[in-house]
Amino acid sequence: MSKIINVRLELDKIDKSKIIVGEKGKYLNIIVAERKETDQYGNTHTVYIQQTKEEREAKEEKKYMGSGKEYEFENDVKNLVPGSEDDDLPF
Q1: Is 51 helix (H, G, I), strand (E, B) or coil?
Q2: Is residue 11 exposed (0-12), middle (13-18) or buried (19+ Cβ within 10 Å)?
Q3: Tens-digit pLDDT profile for residues 11-57
Q4: C-alpha distance from residue 39 to each of 9, 34, 35, 42, 68 (Å)
Q5: What is the three-class DSSP state of 52?
Q6: What's the pTM value of the predicted model, to 2 decimals?
Q7: Phi, psi values for residue 80, rounded to 5°
Q8: Rounded distance, CA 86 to CA 18, Å?
């Protein structure tokens, strides 16, 4: 059984000062945390911008960017390859 988390981000909420410019591009560190309870829309996770140590110590409010839902699915190759149930291949 495999799991994925499909998230939806509100890009307008990105704090531009949190964008890290590296050699290969621009990055934003985010946190995806499991919610204590599923919300009214079925979201199981919340997404916010990672805080610095100083922001955490000062108990600054987290900057929420979105939410997400967890999905579970079978990790069966037969379900991924069309027609694989019908063939008689030895692999």
Answers
A1: coil
A2: exposed
A3: 998 999 999 999 999 999 999 999 999 999 999 999 999 999 999 99
A4: 16, 11, 8, 5, 10
A5: coil
A6: 0.71
A7: -95, -25
A8: 52
